[in-house]
Each structure stands twice: as structure tokens, then as C-alpha cells.
Amino acid sequence: MEKTIGFIRVTTAVFCLVFLSNTSGFAATQLDLSIQADKPGLKISKYLYGQFAEHLGHGIYEGIWVGKKSSIPNTRGFRKDVVAALEALQIPVIRWPGGCFADEYHWRDGIGPAKNRPVKINTHWGWVDETNAFGTHEFFDLVEMLGTEAYIAGNIGSGTPREMAEWLEYMTADGNTELAKLRRKNGRDKPWKVSFFGVGNETWGCGGNMTPQYYADLYKRYATFLKAPDGNRPKKVASGGNDAHTDWTEALSGIKWNIDGISHHYYTIPSGEWPVKGKSTGFPEKEWISTLFNTMKIDGYLKRNEEVLEKNNPQGNIGLYLDEWGTWYDPEPGREPGFLYQQNSLRDAVVAALNFNIFHQHVKRLHMANIAQTVNVLQAMILTDKEKMVLTPTYHVFKMYVPFQDATFIPNQFKSMPKYTLGDVSVPQVSASTALSKEGNVIMALANLDPHNTAQITASIQGFSAKSAKGSVLTADALDAHNTFEKPDIVKPAPIDVKVQKGKVSLELPAKSVTVITILK
């Protein structure tokens, strides 16, 4: 049996299993890395580090919004601890209100005095009451508090073109229309900036169970009426596919105008099967490697869809928006399955780093990526329990990678790359990404996928005179090491020793780790 990831051929070779996966006698792997700073590429868009917050479980309510009267310290209803933590990530964009929730969300339910807002049922996630206490004004308050940008997901599944068009007018009108007056009456004088607008969500499934061509025609109809003033016209994103197939991209990339992007969704599941996905903690090593193997499939998925765009849209104005990605595990025991709450471990940190390193290679067509989700849902940055809050390993990786936002991609190449192999599954031992920061320094990110063997890295940099380096590493003893409310610092970054001698940079990567360093000239 064989499995393949890109250029990686995975076999059941016994010597690989014995050499790389034996539980005794581990040694550091020597790896030579060449970094070509003299061949700068395209900008790594900050939007690849986007977030996604849906009305799902405690993703919004309790997780971000507690209301002005809550005993939990808050600013205008927003948790102070959560907002402060998110500010440190320099979040470039937040997608809201869904997700599947978007296609049952009617924006007028979420404006005006909170006491007058109707209570609805969240039919997608737990069949619980949706109070609409968090609506358009509250979302944009959060956006402005964080200094980020707004990506609105519009309702095409159960809404009308008029409803969608009026929402955009309500948010962006700068004149004296009835909707502009209504916004002012509700407390906001100036229009908000809407950077991106999604015309529906997962229209192949929860957004309407449509076919690609039917949705493409529907998209053109709805998008025609999405109008905004000069200087505040959002980029319009169509609802695309979610797997290895390219039929959605084929249909949508044929639209010649009024489209800026096509979304794609991909979730990493340890088993690769939705009915039984795997546990978030307490998992065996075979699920460690299968999770890494499955997350790397996004590289091939992006390539196939990019090939379609290059063929149908050679002018290059349509990008891919991976506006939902991350790990998805079985529900935590004792919790409402519809709330999608899951623990977040060192494995998730390595998954995040792997994804970032892959995303950086697709910057020509990959214009945005939004992890699912920001707080308390799936691969979250933050977990809360009433007044308690804890930062996850994934949060720390996002913060470590902040220097890559709007940096310039530079290629790198290992002289050779051993595999980490278990059973019939193999992945490269180390994943790397390099860039030139806005300050002109070299940034290097390294993920050691091997849970047993360290890796000794020696990097030479062409076109750059390295003088010194500094950085941090994220690792832990256990595969499923995670932070808890009682022990919040089990997995957190620590300084790493980096040597620079005669222009070469050397460091040792611990097993199962994520490292980011800045090399100064």
C-alpha cells in the first residue's frame, strides 16, 4: 500500500519504520537548508492569517460577547481578556456571521435596541435560542476594537437579493437614504468599511444544496445588486468547493465580471472520515501522523484549483479564499455535539504551522485563509469557561507567525529530506518557510513533524549577510499536550538557541515542535 503527498512517496519500507519510528536510540538528523534571499517572490498577504467567528456554541456568546451587565470584565459587552489576547495576533480580517449560520441569518433581526430584537432558533448548531444580542453594530465594534477588517457572509440560502443588497447599503451608505438614517438612528453615524462580502456559504450543502452551475447563475443575480459607494466597495467572494474536485472553480471562474474570489473549505480529520473523526486528546501516534498527512492534502487541492484559474482566468483577478480551514475532531464527551467545542493540543500547533508553510507557496492565487474558529469552536485560538480563559497552542503559533504578514516570500530548499514514517504513512520530517520581513530581515519558520527525532539545521542564505538571530520554539513532552484553565502554560513558546557563524545559521529543532526565528543583518 502507498500514499502520496505531492513529491513525497509513502511506502511501507521496513527500514524507514525501524529507523524513524523506533522508540529507542533517537538521534538528531542533520539537514542543510539553502535560503535564496536574492530571489524574492510575491508578498505573503496578511489575509492568510484571517479569523472566522460564527454564531455557534460559545464562539460569540460567552466567548467574545458577554453583554454590558456581565460580571465578567468587559468593554461595551466584549470580554476584556479575550479582546486583549486577540489584539496581540494583529488579526487582519474576521469573517462573520457564518458558516452555515449565515444562510439563515436575517440582518434586521440584529439591529436596534437589544430588548426589541427577536429570539430565533439556531437550527444548524444545537437548536438553541439565538437572541440576536450580537448583530451588525456589535460586530463592527469588535472589528474597530481589534483594528481589523470585515468579511461579511451574506444570506443567499434563505434570503433574497433585496435583503442582501439592503444590508450592504445599511453598512456602507454615506448619503441620506432611509437605510443610512436607520443606521444613524441605531447609533452609528459614519458608514463602516466592508472589505469583503461573501455571496452565500457552502452552497453545495448547508447553504442550499445547489449544483455549481445553478449557484453560478444565482451568484451573478445576487452580486448584480450588491452596490456600494466609491471607495467602500467590498471584494465579492463566491461560494466554492470543499474537496479535491474542481467543478465549483470551473463553473465560477467562467464568470467574467463582478467577482473577486472563490471560496474553498478544507478541514483536517485524523481518520479522513466524517462519522468517526478521532479524538482531540488521548490519541495514538498513528493519529498524530495521519492528521499531519491529511492536512498536507490542501497543497494538492490548492494546486488543482489554481490550475483551473490559470486556464479560465489568466488575467489573474480572481483569487482563492480558503475561508474555513482547521482540525475537526469528535465531540468532547459531556458537551453538546452541535457546539463543536474541542480541546487544542500540540498537534494542532504543528497543523497550523504546516498550513502556513503551505499557504506561503500559493500566494499568487491564495488571497485569504480564515481558520475555524476564533474562540471555543473547532481549532480555536482561545477557550473560555465563564470567567476563565486559556490560550491554545494554535494561538501561540499564530502569534509566532505575525512577522510573516505582508512579508516577501523567498524560496528555500533542503539538500535532502528524511521521512517520518509510521506504518504505511510518511511525511517529511521538517517543513520550512522563509521570507523577507518588512524591515528587511529573514524570517524562517520550521516545523519538526517527527515526534521522536530532533533535527540539526544548518542554513546558508544567498544574498543576505547574517549577523545575528533570535527566535522561539513551541514544544512539549506529550503528543497531546494542551493548556487547561488550571494549567494554562503547559504549551507555550520559549526562547531557542540560534548560532550565526560566518554567515551560516544553525539551530536544533526539538522533536514535535514549531520554531520561528528572525535573522538580522
Offer a few descriptive terms.
521 residues, Immunoglobulin-like, TIM Barrel, 2 domains, 6-stranded antiparallel β-sheet, 29 strands, 27% strand, disordered N terminus
In spatial order, strands of the major sheet run: 4-7-10-11-12-13-14-15
CATH topology name of the largest domain, in short, is: TIM Barrel
Q: What does the largest sheet look like?
A: 8 strands, parallel, barrel
The number of distinct β-strands equals 29
Low-confidence stretches: 1-25
Q: What is the correct CATH architecture of the largest domain?
A: Alpha-Beta Barrel
Could you tell me the mean pLDDT? Answer: 94
Shape: globular
**Rg:** 23 Å
What is the strand content?
25-35%
Report, as a whole number of angstroms, the end-to-end distance.
Answer: 48 Å
The figure for the number of domains is 2
The CATH homology group name of the largest domain: Glycosidases
- Helix/strand structural class: alpha/beta
Helix content: 10-25%
Helix count equals 11
What is the CATH class name of the largest domain?
Alpha Beta
3D architecture notes:
This protein has 521 residues and is an alpha/beta fold. The chain has two domains: 3-42 and 409-520, Sandwich (Immunoglobulin-like), CATH 2.60.40.1180; 46-56 and 88-351 and 363-377, Alpha-Beta Barrel (TIM Barrel). Helix content is 22%, strand content 27%. The protein contains eleven helices and 29 strands. It has helices at 14-21, 80-87, 136-146, 161-172, 178-185, 212-224, 247-252, 285-295, 297-312, 346-359, 393-400; strands spanning 3-5, 8-10, 29-36, 50-52, 74-75, 78-79, 93-96, 120-122, 128-130, 149-154, 196-199, 235-238, 261-268, 319-327, 366-372, 382-385, 388-391, 408-410, 412-414, 419-422, 425-428, 430-436, 442-448, 455-462, 468-474, 494-495, 499-501, 504-509, 513-520. The chain has an eight-stranded parallel β-barrel with strand order 4-7-10-11-12-13-14-15, surrounded by five helices. Helix 7 links the parallel strand 12 and strand 13 (261-268). Helix 4 (161-172) packs across helix 5 (178-185), helix 8 runs parallel beside helix 10 and helix 10 packs parallel to helix 11 (393-400). The longest helix is centred in the middle third of the chain and has 16 residues, at 297-312. It is globular. The termini are far apart. Residues 1-25 have low confidence and may be disordered.
